[in-house]
Description:
Its cofactor is FAD. It holds the Pfam family FAD_binding_4. It comes from Gossypium schwendimanii (Cotton). Residues 52-229 form the FAD-binding PCMH-type domain. This is cytokinin dehydrogenase. This protein is α+β, with helices and mostly antiparallel strands and 515 residues long. The protein has 3 domains: 20-106 and 495-504, Uridine Diphospho-n-acetylenolpyruvylglucosamine Reductase, domain 2 (2-Layer Sandwich); 109-228, 2-Layer Sandwich (Uridine Diphospho-n-acetylenolpyruvylglucosamine Reductase, domain 3); 232-465, Vanillyl-alcohol Oxidase, Chain A, domain 3. Helices cover 30% and strands 22% of the residues. It is built from 15 helices and 18 strands. It has helices spanning 2-11, 19-29, 65-76, 133-144, 159-163, 172-175, 203-209, 243-254, 319-330, 347-351, 353-364, 380-394, 442-458, 473-480, 484-494; strands at 34-36, 58-61, 83-86, 102-105, 114-119, 122-128, 146-148, 182-189, 194-198, 217-228, 232-240, 264-271, 303-313, 340-346, 374-379, 403-409, 426-432, 463-466. The strands form 3 sheets. It has an 8-stranded antiparallel beta sheet with strand order 14-11-13-12-16-17-15-18. Strands 5, 6, 7, 8, 9 and 10 form a 6-stranded antiparallel beta sheet that branches. Strands 1-2-4-3 form a 4-stranded mixed beta sheet, with helices on one face. Strand 5 (114-119) and strand 6 form a beta hairpin. Helix 1 (2-11) packs antiparallel against helix 2 (19-29). Residues 8-17 have low confidence and may be disordered. The structure holds flavin-adenine dinucleotide. Flavin-adenine dinucleotide binds next to strand 3, helix 5 and strand 10.
Amino acid sequence: MxxxxxxxxxxxxxxxxxxxxxxxxxxxxxxxxxIESGGITGVxxxxxxxxxxxxxxxxxxxxxxxxxxxxxNAASRTSHLTVAARGNGHSINGQAMADGGFVIxxxxxxxxxxxxxxxxxxxxxxxxxxxxxxxxxxxCVSMFxxxxxxxxxxxxxxxxxxxSNAGVSGQAFRFGPQTSNVTELEVVTGKGEITVCSETQNxxxxxxxxxxxxxxxxxxxxxxxLQPAPDMVxxxxxxxxxxxxxxxxxxxLVTQEEGESFDYVEGxxxxxxxxxxxxxxxxxxxPDHEFNPAYIPQTAGSVLYCLEVALHYRNSDRPSTVDTxxxxxxxxxxxxxxxxxQLNVSYVxxxxxxxxxxxHAKANGNWDSPHPWLNIFISKSSIVDFDRTxxxxxxxxxxGGPMLIYPLLRxxxxxxxxxxxxxxxxxxxxxxxxxxxxGSTVEKLVAQNHEVIKWCNKEGLDFKVYLPHYQSxxxxxxxxxxxxxxxxERKTSFDPMAILAPGQKIFKRTHIIQP
Length: 515
Ligand code: FAD
């Protein structure tokens, strides 16, 4: 087998492996699943970002963990082959790619696990690392009336893909990110071992893999906490002119006890203009809603702020009860009273809201164009400065898509995971979800992202890039800060030859096992 791998790798161009070599490779790996090369691997060399493309050696569609372990073991017997798990390829900067290496299509394993469990009266679901969150949602709600507690805004992402980062949305203030809502993982490590891990069993691997950027192992199964699924959601948007009032209200809501606040809290910045994508028209939740700019105070600046909240309820709740609960919460907030938009939607519809935007963008041809997105966690101590310069000046005309900003609580994140955060209990996620507008170029937008980060560094802001992307080890060291040593130790323990997730560009493949 090794001879076969060695010959294929040394003698052929990654995108032109002859078919008989592929079948030899497949046979020698002893896979239950399939292996593809040539043109078919095209998808494995691309991602949602559309900024990078590489040529993998082959795309493997494994049947399960054993196949994945076989591929990792085979790679480990060569001097330079790497292995990248590909969830749904929704990374921006090539993080799920393997140049000249094996890409494992995790989606082929999506059906392998789907098992509900009740442990000490609490509900869980065991799901595949390659399952899409949207499928987990639909199946859990329709079969058990239960649902995971913590989400991402968009659900065509895989369980393993978001758990390798964090998984953040408007529920994270209460339940923490998705990495705080799993209790057990099955992982194929970079040593090719299939290992079950949890807080009490192989805990270094468990916490290391959560937010571990795919560096320690490939998540093949996750045990996700569930809660009773509500039937309906009151979805509300309210508008502010002053950043200080917007942040004061958002922080008030995320620091209240359950039952004393909304179930979902997010927010975004938009341009104070009639631009259909970046301005007022982007705020109403329904075509029947009208955003009347006459209600915007004269004192308003170049941008406005929208607080987006939602309250769960049951079909059996009386409308007046829901109205009262919503009014009681809204009356404590200082938004522009006449700029309030609300809609009742089913819980599943609410969680799938970005899917609709995807369908529109696909119809307009925008979905498949490049997306130079930038996500940053910024501490409360730095957020006012960030708003003053970045939102109100640099990005005052928008980014061709949403500019999210909402507060999160550090205490809901487990510091034993590999995720890195800024200091302080309250920090904000800022997401610049750029679509390339006509008249601009990707290069220009990427340059603007760099400018934002450069400015943050120059001003000494307390921040960490989320879904990070760096080219040099020095930058990665700076990113991990005082967690770098722990991360390197974990890497050395679980992927000593740096076979996994080469697209993150953190460690270089080696054939010498580090001590
Ligand atoms: P991929 O892009 O395929 O992989 C990401 C990384 O994880 C790669 O390094 C890959 O090798 C590794 N990986 C993949 N699967 C596994 C596995 N099973 N085990 C170990 N490593 C693995 N993020 C949020 O937190 N909140 C949001 O609201 C949010 N919304 C988004 C909306 C859109 C439209 C998009 C495109 C992205 C969004 N993201 C959001 C970012 C998203 O969480 C990450 O890009 C995530 O990595 C994508 O998941 P994926 O399954 O496509 O992973």
